[in-house]
């Protein structure tokens, strides 16, 4: 029986102002199993970014239930959400979000240094080195991010996302700041990670890359209107 990584049931997100309520998500039901590669696509304003924020515990739903590995994470406080996010979720962003003042090594090590249970420097060095090998960037460990190309920076961002051995990798427009050659290389790397067992959920505007996932969800007006197995 396949292991369920996360499930959402009847998730809504409403942004309220004095003048109006904006329904960003309307009754989202979603299951992602260990080893899945799910892409989420749809036009601007359809709710993709909101859904990714909820999946990554960067925001909380207005209503509905969200479980990660059997733990109810629907309504956590900020510190609880930060701990679970650090331990269970890896992020890959369009803009890389690396810290230019830190070396490549220290950028990758950062999630481990914020762990609730302290990780030894020896174990940090071992894990960072392993992740650098996965993305073929061991020779850049002591460089700063601004000394790297965009494609190299995204490889480092992938290594940082992997270092904590997350249950889920959330990928937000990973090729948006890359040319087509580097974009293709990053997508091939993500496919290989998935083939090796990493669970991925990716938001993308590019239909070619959306079709590289195993399952494609189409969002419109805050609802999943279509789900395809590819």
UniProtKB/TrEMBL annotation:
PROSITE patterns: ABC_TRANSPORTER_1 (PS00211), ABC_TRANSPORTER_2 (PS50893). InterPro entries: AAA+_ATPase (IPR003593), ABC_transporter-like_ATP-bd (IPR003439), ABC_transporter-like_CS (IPR017871), ABC_transpr_LolD-like (IPR015854), MacB-like_ATP-bd (IPR017911), P-loop_NTPase (IPR027417). The keyword Nucleotide-binding applies. SMART domains: AAA. This is ABC transporter ATP-binding protein. It holds the Pfam family ABC_tran. Residues 6-230 form the ABC transporter domain. Keywords: ATP-binding, Nucleotide-binding, Transport. The keyword S-adenosyl-L-methionine does not apply. GO terms for molecular function: ATP binding.
